[in-house]
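Help needed: design a sequence for this.
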């Protein structure tokens, strides 16, 4: 359990879900981790449970000044940044059942999703390159989605923002390589990972189990994934084992994108 010993990481949206699982796995592998989020109470609680190699700080990924302040504090306290995980993301459905299809979505909702999912990743990558340049190496891990690789009829902004994250990750990878920096940038593409993000879609009534079965019907492994199963891939990308990986995309989706809905159902 020492694949990340000596490394310093910052994880966004780390109060719960996939971000919390990544922070937990990084600490278990020996890293020091700054957990960040906009949910201060939960973020502080999650960090405290991880012990002395974890700390919490508020960072709204949409705000350039929050990025500046978080990076300054991190470099002051821990002197370096080795790994940034741009994990914070929203679907746009958090506030209720507003339409997100390409015909009915509002411009405000479209922009709000892009502001968190895309602007947040842009700002994070920019801050990380600037911080990592001093040591000339590092790993940037961007949480895209399987929805960044295919269209989603009812979630236009989410799919668009995640596709842009996938592409921006490659641009960052190429730019850093061009600059002669060993700063790698890769994207992870989860699909159907059971976290609180799904609560708005699944509800919590007696229908929840049936809805869960419906959602994973087309997934070859026929189940939701666990946040820890995404965290394991983030550990690999953060570690020196992945030194020759940059600009790549890794799906963690139970096989969903390996086939096509046109395949006969078994
Ligand atoms: P969750 O909703 O469970 O957790 C996301 C966390 O990010 C929350 O703590 C949330 O805080 C925080 N957050 C939201 N907006 C901001 C912001 N502006 N700045 C900082 N933090 C913010 O999501 P998941 O763990 O499920 O998802 C993590 C990432 O993985 C996301 O990028 C998501 O799109 C991606 N992903 C997830 C999949 C899944 O099936 N779960 C599938 C594909 C991709 P608050 O609760 O206060 O809003």
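Sure. Designed sequence:
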């Amino acid at each position: 359990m020492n694949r990340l010993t000596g490394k310093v990481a910052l994880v966004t949206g780390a109060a719960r879900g996939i971000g919390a699982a990544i922070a937990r796995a990084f600490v278990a592998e020996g890293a020091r981790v700054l957990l960040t989020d906009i949910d201060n109470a939960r973020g502080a609680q999650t960090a405290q449970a991880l012990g002395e190699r974890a700390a919490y700080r508020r960072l709204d990924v949409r705000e350039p000044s929050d990025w500046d302040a978080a990076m300054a504090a991190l470099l002051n306290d821990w002197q370096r940044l080795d790994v940034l995980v741009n994990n914070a993301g929203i679907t746009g459905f958090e506030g209720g059942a507003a339409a997100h299809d390409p015909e009915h979505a509002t411009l405000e909702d479209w922009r709000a999703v892009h502001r968190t999912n895309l602007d947040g990743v842009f700002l994070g990558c920019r801050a990380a390159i600037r911080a990592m340049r001093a040591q000339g190496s590092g790993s940037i891990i961007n949480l895209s989605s399987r929805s960044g690789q295919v269209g989603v009829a009812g979630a236009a902004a989410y799919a668009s923002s995640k596709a842009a994250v996938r592409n921006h990750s490659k641009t960052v990878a190429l730019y850093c390589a061009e600059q002669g920096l060993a700063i790698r940038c890769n994207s992870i593409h989860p699909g159907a990972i059971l976290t609180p993000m799904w609560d708005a879609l699944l509800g919590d009534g007696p229908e929840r189990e049936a809805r869960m079965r419906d959602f994973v019907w087309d997934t070859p492994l026929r189940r939701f994934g666990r946040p820890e199963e995404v965290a394991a891939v983030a550990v690999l990308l953060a570690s020196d084992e992945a030194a020759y990986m940059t600009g790549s995309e890794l799906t963690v989706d139970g096989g969903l994108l390996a086939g096509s809905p046109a395949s006969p159902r078994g």
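The CA atoms of residues 140 and 185 lie 5 Å apart.
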